[in-house]
Design goal:
Organism (chain A): Paenibacillus segetis
Family (chain A): Belongs to the ETF beta-subunit/FixA family.
Bound molecules: flavin-adenine dinucleotide
Radius of gyration of chain A: 22 Å
Distance between the termini of chain B: 54 Å
Order of helices and strands of chain B: EEEHEHEHEHEEEEEEEEHEHEHEHEH
Low-confidence stretches of chain A: none
Structural class of chain A: alpha/beta
Helix content of chain A: 25-40%
Number of strands of chain A: 15
Strand order of the largest sheet of chain A: 11-10-9-12-8-1-6-7-13
Number of helices of chain A: 7
Shape of chain B: globular
Subunit structure (chain A): Heterodimer of an alpha and a beta subunit.
Number of strands of chain B: 18
Largest interface: A-B, 84 and 101 residues
Low-confidence stretches of chain B: none
Pfam families (chain A): ETF
Protein name (chain A): Electron transfer flavoprotein subunit beta
Number of helices of chain B: 9
Oligomer: heterodimer
Shape of chain A: globular
Radius of gyration of chain B: 21 Å
């Protein structure tokens, strides 16, 4: 079974956000594999252990993305592909999905796995757009995946309800929390990763030009949320505090009470 | 020239979702006077919902009613909507940023070769431009964006944009029923839907959220929180700490890698206030923290804090609310 995992490198979830000269500063920021994409990597490795085949991790991003791909190789992926090009960096989800589709269209695969969304830009578009561009079925936000022959049996988390589906491969799935528990790279894994194939490509290599992928949306401004004014710790006996809180809420301007 | 604005309506548990009314109002915020509003309603047994929608819509309602559309499936829903979109040639398509909206929107965007802005929380017009505000890093930052060209696809986050109000004296909406021809062969088939949420207040649409963390200590520990939520007609949420410990389902998780909620009142019980949790709830209107540790970081963010044992405080609150709301 040939599996591709599309992944993105994101800020660590612990990071605070600072804006410098109109952009989000990445000074001293720790980067990780987008947590949902990490579930996708784990699931791919698990399927390979059951069914054989190969796992290729694929990413678009700046050079630092190499680190995220190396981590995935150390976890057990077989090959990595990084498409890195300044001409893509001004793009949006439309652009990124076009580039991925141009590359994957020329590969043979049974499964494509990705994350439910990326925790930085939170668009949740790229993987689903990709399935459309490749004309393969997809199921988003899965929490269980079993493959048998050319059929996949999946559970999809739909805002708390669970939908069970049968899907004919090749297909694309996006991972939701609960799908698995990602493994840590082992020391031998880290050593082996250094010798695994790592391909670095440009936009030209996938046969696209900048004008074919130019963004459809444009950012006008970036800002931090207003800081909340510090609140009030209630005092006194607990039953009096509870009564006071209800009073305060009833006299506030919220309509819910 | 007049343009067409499309809203893809959403039905859950046989009810029209609140976010659809918010999407209708989004059109009002974005459009010009002579633009056309067309709502697309897909599902099964839609007569009552069509009737309800017609009180909000001065324009067209395209109804695609078929037994195969009774439950959401990306393939059947997309097959159903494709031809209607072709005939409407939309300028913008609005959907809710919900399980089905999040799934359908990128399919539509890819099909229309369109840009998409996801999870929009505010829409405003400046001169001739429509500006969309959306969160980055789960609300640790925000960006304002615009489209460079049309067509456009937008998903809006529930509970952030005001809902359209009914106008029974509206010019009657034009209801257009469209046939659905099931695709010759389906590549994905929904076998079953296990409902875990029906009858409960939707977490992302709730006006009040009562959340439990590791301090709740067990799945039974969630009971007092459920009672409080019930009295307030709110929903129960959780921290990842509580989910990881197996006290509740991951579907309840709020935070950077869970759901993002913006209720009017958020009550955090036994939650320390880790940065990943704050990312999912810090935009709530009023935040209340109940924690026995006065140093817990959640108190830095809370509008009101009670330092104490949640198993004492939460039932006291439930009683007080019962009295006040009686
Ligand atoms: C990649 C990544 C993603 C993450 N995503 C999320 C996310 O989306 N959402 C999220 O919530 N977390 C997330 N986390 C986890 C986060 O870092 C915290 O570990 C988690 O939020 C802690 O949960 P908690 O506050 O319930 O538990 P704790 O931090 O253990 O806090 C429990 C609190 O309960 C209080 N308490 C105990 N008993 C009582 C009592 N009887 N009465 C009153 N108070 C009591 C304690 O004083 C303490 O403050 C993520 C972490 C990582 C690494």
């Amino acid at each position: 079974m040939n599996i591709y995992v599309i992944l993105k490198q994101t800020f660590d979830t612990e990071e605070k956000i600072a804006i410098q000269e109109g952009v989000i500063s990445d000074d001293g920021v720790k980067f990780i594999i987008n947590p949902y994409d990490e579930y996708a990597v784990e699931e791919a490795l698990h399927l390979k252990e059951q069914h054989g085949g190969s796992v290729t991790v694929l990413s678009i991003g700046p050079n630092r993305t190499t680190e995220a791909l190396r981590t995935a190789l150390a976890m057990g992926a077989d090959e990595a592909v990084l498409i890195s090009d300044d001409q893509i960096s001004s793009g949006d989800e439309f652009s990124v999905s076009k580039v991925l589709a141009a590359y994957l269209d020329k590969q043979s695969f049974d499964l494509i796995l990705g994350g439910n969304f990326s925790i930085d830009s939170g668009g949740g578009q790229v993987a689903i757009r990709l399935s459309q561009l490749l004309n393969i079925p997809h199921v988003a936000s899965i929490i269980k995946l079993d493959v048998s022959g050319d059929q996949a049996f999946v559970h999809r988390d739909s805002e708390g309800d669970i939908e069970t589906l049968m899907v004919t491969l090749p297909a694309l799935f996006t991972a939701q929390q609960g799908l698995n528990e990602p493994r840590y790279p082992s020391l031998p894994g880290i050593m082996k990763a250094k010798k695994k194939p790592f391909h670095q490509l440009t936009l030209d290599d996938v046969g696209l030009t900048e004008s074919e992928i130019s963004a459809k949306t444009e950012r006008l401004s970036l800002f931090l949320p207003p800081t909340r004014k510090s609140g009030q710790i209630l005092q006194g006996e607990l039953n009096d505090q509870a009564a006071e809180l209800v009073q305060l809420l009833q006299h506030s301007d919220v309509k819910a009470i | 020239m007049s343009k067409t604005y499309v809203v893809v309506a959403e039905v859950r548990d046989s009810k029209l979702r609140q976010v659809t009314l918010e999407a209708l109002n989004s059109v009002a915020l974005a459009q010009e006077d002579d633009d056309l509003l067309a709502v697309i309603l897909m599902g099964h047994q839609l007569a009552a919902i069509t009737e309800q929608l017609s009180q909000y819509v001065a324009g067209q309602i395209h109804v695609i009613d078929h037994i195969d559309l009774g439950t959401y499936n990306s393939e059947t829903y997309f097959a159903a909507i494709k031809d209607v979109l072709d005939s409407l040639n939309p300028h913008v398509v609005f959907l809710g940023h919900t399980a089905s909206g999040r799934d359908l929107a990128p399919m539509i965007a890819a099909y229309l070769n369109a840009g998409q802005l996801s999870d929009v929380i505010a829409i405003e017009k400046a001169d001739a431009e429509v500006l969309y505000t959306r969160p980055l890093y789960a609300g640790k930052a925000f960006e304002q964006k615009k489209f460079i060209e049309s067509p456009q696809v937008v998903t809006i986050r529930p509970n952030n944009i005001a809902a359209a109000t009914a106008n029974p004296s509206n010019p009657q909406a034009e209801v257009i029923t469209t046939d659905y021809a099931p695709p010759a062969s389906l590549r994905s088939i929904v076998k079953d839907v296990i409902r875990k949420t029906s009858g409960k207040v939707d977490l992302t649409e709730a006006k009040i959220v009562v959340s439990g963390g590791r301090g709740v200590k067990s799945s039974d520990g969630f009971k007092p929180l459920q009672e409080l939520a019930e009295v307030l007609n709110g929903a129960v949420g959780a921290s990842r700490g509580a989910c990881d410990a197996g006290y509740c389902d991951y579907a309840l998780q709020i935070g950077q890698t869970g759901k993002v909620v913006t209720p009017e009142i958020y009550i955090a019980c036994g939650i320390s206030g880790a940065i990943q949790h704050l990312a999912g709830m810090s935009q709530s209107r009023i935040i209340i923290a109940i924690n026995k540790d006065p140093e817990a970081p959640i108190f830095k963010l809370a509008d009101y804090g009670i330092v104490g044992d949640l198993f004492v405080v939460v039932p006291l609150l439930t009683e007080e609310f019962k009295k006040a709301l009686a």
